[in-house]
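Worked example 3 (structure in, sequence out).
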């Protein structure tokens, strides 16, 4: 005898997964398990069992809880993409403590969740992220500096970047390469994490607390992992945390300086600034660092390496008490153009299009952005204004000139 399949979605749903979603929604509302239990006229222990997936929830209970949490039932029971857990690890040369493992684990889980949301939005909008991936570069680690510069030059040529500065590096890696890059809050010692799998492609998370110069360096550093160590996920620390830096990290550090400050362009710019006076002042140093969007320290070391500044220049400036931010203000340098949004721009546009198309609720939109509903409404208006501005601007483009 063939048994008819059930039409009740709750008969076929993963109760463990549903329980986790219910717990997440309750916590966002600031409700306790005891509060939630009262909503369904049950004991707190029943609510505990439901959230653990140990007690099958009734349809009437699910409706009451969804209403109490301010979300749609469909937000809890719809099919969602399954993403393999990120296996991001510290370098073997760095012995992370249990405390360090514990403090980075929530960030990894949050990053993983955002990547799953990204896939979900792509499925809803039927708009997968375009990928423009190069082949994985072979490296031998026997001539790190030469290999790093060769990869940097090749990638600049591939992406049409010339030998000048790279403004809005994050947007280029997201939109021209197709990496999934999130800016999340991390303890100060962590700079960036990288992961890859066939389902998601290349994914990075950058420490949003770091200054823009540091974040750009971390982006370039993480990009090298994608280019040369593609299937080796890693937690990266700021360089000072390593007693002995592994070869893979030295390659990534070297790549960052060549990618952000290519030798040919740097030489030309340096000579232009020095001009007929044959002098290169502190103001010149700060202006040039700002031009390339790197720290004054990184530029000083780069100029020392190619013999344009005497060895030890940075240490002497530092020992004299140089105040970087103060000097930047005194010579009137503006903030480096940046986009420090938590989510990639393609992700944000998928979310607002799904909301405006009635494909997701406002609550789900807020979940995708990782904010409350009030903040979600503010972001939605900004995204609509941005999209509207892009459309209006596009209408004025002279198509005859575009074709030239």
């Amino acid at each position: 005898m063939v048994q008819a399949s059930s039409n009740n979605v709750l008969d076929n749903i993963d109760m463990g997964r549903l329980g986790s979603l219910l717990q997440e929604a309750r916590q966002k509302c600031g409700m306790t398990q005891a509060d939630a239990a009262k909503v369904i006229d049950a004991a707190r222990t029943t609510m505990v069992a439901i959230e653990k997936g140990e007690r099958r929830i009734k349809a009437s209970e699910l409706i009451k809880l969804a209403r109490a949490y301010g979300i749609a039932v469909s937000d809890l029971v719809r099919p969602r993409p399954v993403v393999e857990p990120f296996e991001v690890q510290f370098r073997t040369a760095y012995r992370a403590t249990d405390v360090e493992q514990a403090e980075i684990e929530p960030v990894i889980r949050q990053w993983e969740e955002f990547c799953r949301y990204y896939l979900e939005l792509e499925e809803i909008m039927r708009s997968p992220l375009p990928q423009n991936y190069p082949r994985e570069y072979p490296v031998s680690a026997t001539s790190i500096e030469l290999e790093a510069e060769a990869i940097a030059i090749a990638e600049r040529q591939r992406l049409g970047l010339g030998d000048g500065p790279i403004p809005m590096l994050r947007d280029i890696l997201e939109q021209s390469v197709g990496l999934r890059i999130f800016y999340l809050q991390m303890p100060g010692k962590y700079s960036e994490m990288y992961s890859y799998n066939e389902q998601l492609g290349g994914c990075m998370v950058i420490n949003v607390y770091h200054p823009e110069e540091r974040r750009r360096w971390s982006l370039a550093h993480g990009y090298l992992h994608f280019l040369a160590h593609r299937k080796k996920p890693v937690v990266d620390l700021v360089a000072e945390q390593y007693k002995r830096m592994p070869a893979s990290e030295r390659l990534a550090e070297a790549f960052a300086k060549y990618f952000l400050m290519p030798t040919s362009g740097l030489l030309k710019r340096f000579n232009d600034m020095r001009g007929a006076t044959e002098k290169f002042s502190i103001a010149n140093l700060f202006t040039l660092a700002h031009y390339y969007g790197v720290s004054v320290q990184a530029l000083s070391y780069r100029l020392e390496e190619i013999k344009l500044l005497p060895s030890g220049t940075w240490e002497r400036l530092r020992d004299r008490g140089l105040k970087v931010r103060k000097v930047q203000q005194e010579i009137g340098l503006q903030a480096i153009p940046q986009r420090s949004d938590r989510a990639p721009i393609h992700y944000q546009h998928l979310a607002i299009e799904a909301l405006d198309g009635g494909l997701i609720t406002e609550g789900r939109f807020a979940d995708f952005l990782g904010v409350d509903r009030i903040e979600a409404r503010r972001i939605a208006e900004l995204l609509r204004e941005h999209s509207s501005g892009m459309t209006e601007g596009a209408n004025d483009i002279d198509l005859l000139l575009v074709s030239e």
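Notes: The first strand starts at residue 180 and ends at 184. Confidence is low (pLDDT under 50) at residues 1-5, 391-404.
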